[in-house]
Amino acid sequence: MKRELRVVVQDTVALLVSTIANVLFFLVVALSALALDFFATNVFSEAPRIVGVSLKWLEYAILALNIAAFLMSQGIALFKFVRNAFVDREQSHEQ
Fold this sequence. Notes:
By secondary structure, the chain is mainly α. It has two helices and two strands; from the N terminus they run αββα. The protein has one domain (2-81). It has a two-stranded antiparallel ribbon.
């Protein structure tokens, strides 16, 4: 029982740390996209183009990839958390 509780606490802390890291990463990328937007709108009279792609669309792509990476990493962390909970419960029933 004590071992089960320790494993649950470890998994919960790992999920919490992963969530905090993902949120910080999300904020850094979102702030860089906002800085890119500020640079594009205040330095140039119109949005510059990089290889034929407007900088505004590049900003949207960065944000979309950021959101996708955030959701994917949170999904993986949650899947590991739930899987470990089921594995630990099955192992405790076998003992």
